[in-house]
Fold DNA-binding response regulator.
Amino acid sequence: MVLTDKKIHILVVEDDNDINQLLCNIIRRNGYLPQPAYSGTEAVLYLDKQEWDMVLLDMMLPGLGGEELLDRIQMTGPIPVIVISAKEESRTKVAMLRRGADDYITKPFDIDEVSARIDSHLRRYRRGTPAEGKEQLLQFKSIRLDQEAKSVSLGDTVLTLTAREYEILALLMSSPKKVFTKANVYESVWGEEFFGDDNTINVHISNLRSKLAKASPDEEFIETLWGMGYRLKP
């Protein structure tokens, strides 16, 4: 399902030729344009060449490793990143989410699941693009969020957020006085039904808080109301 008339470009970073081609075929079947890259070094060349709507990223890569490449991707802006890895350990998944990945799929993967997750992440990210007439600049205290440029600044500091962190902050700033339950956050940002996976939400909220605190150590922006959810702190 193509989400917009604009061509959607997805970078596929996977050193196994068969898996790379399989992922590219899934992307084409969904109506998007894939670009295969077979090493971290090659992926950097493509990242510098143009803007991307999504990156599918293997962790075990020749040259520049997946973790280092993920750090590099975060510097380019809030691009959805789905890690696809043979590492099944929970701590590895949590580590990559903390590092900035938006999702984590283990190999061997189900083709339909990968297809659905690609659509889901793109749909959520595209919804963040303001429609004509919609307020494009959100502000709370010293935070300014530009929905057209998909940029966030805190005072004079420009924040580097992942796509999920950006979407969570935009959700909270859209209704500064509202308390959002974990189900509200998950279903609004991930676009899927919430089944009580607290860990995923906690990791992204924690990362977002850390980045805000680093830019403004003396101010708290997000508060947790235990048993209720999250809101911007008045």
